[in-house]
Amino acid sequence: MEVYQSFALFVEKDGDDIELGIRHLHSLNIVHNDISPYNIMLDETDHPVIIDFDSWQQNGQELGTKKGSRGWSIEEEEYARFENDIYSLSKIREFLHAP
């Protein structure tokens, strides 16, 4: 629970930075495909950094066997799409603002 509390604090402060990181990846035609609290760390200045790129693909490519984390990504998705990352970000925001 402590990890999620720390995560919640920095997302409240810098949540838009995560979205900016995702938008940058998308501008390079890259879909991360596994955006989740487990794949966001803080750097030495407490800014969020997206990590763990073992599921990335170019937009439109087949995902194969490497897909996003259960509960944080679109179930049964077969292709890398920008919407995958946007959906995952919305799940993170939903989780952090749940009562």
Automatic annotation (TrEMBL):
* Entries under InterPro entries matching the protein: Kinase-like_dom_sf, Prot_kinase_dom, Tyr_kinase_AS
Its function, per the record, reads:
Component of the EKC/KEOPS complex that is required for the formation of a threonylcarbamoyl group on adenosine at position 37 (t(6)A37) in tRNAs that read codons beginning with adenine. The complex is probably involved in the transfer of the threonylcarbamoyl moiety of threonylcarbamoyl-AMP (TC-AMP) to the N6 group of A37. BUD32 has ATPase activity in the context of the EKC/KEOPS complex and likely plays a supporting role to the catalytic subunit KAE1. The EKC/KEOPS complex also promotes both telomere uncapping and telomere elongation.
User: Which protein are we looking at?
Assistant: EKC/KEOPS complex subunit BUD32
Check the record and name the PROSITE patterns matching this protein: PROTEIN_KINASE_DOM, PROTEIN_KINASE_TYR
Q: Which organism is it from?
A: Claviceps purpurea (strain 20.1)
Q: Listed GO molecular functions? A: ATP binding; protein serine/threonine kinase activity
Q: Which reaction does it catalyse?
A: L-seryl-[protein] + ATP = O-phospho-L-seryl-[protein] + ADP + H(+); L-threonyl-[protein] + ATP = O-phospho-L-threonyl-[protein] + ADP + H(+)
- Enzyme Commission number(s) of this protein: 2.7.11.1
Q: Where is the Protein kinase domain?
A: 1-99
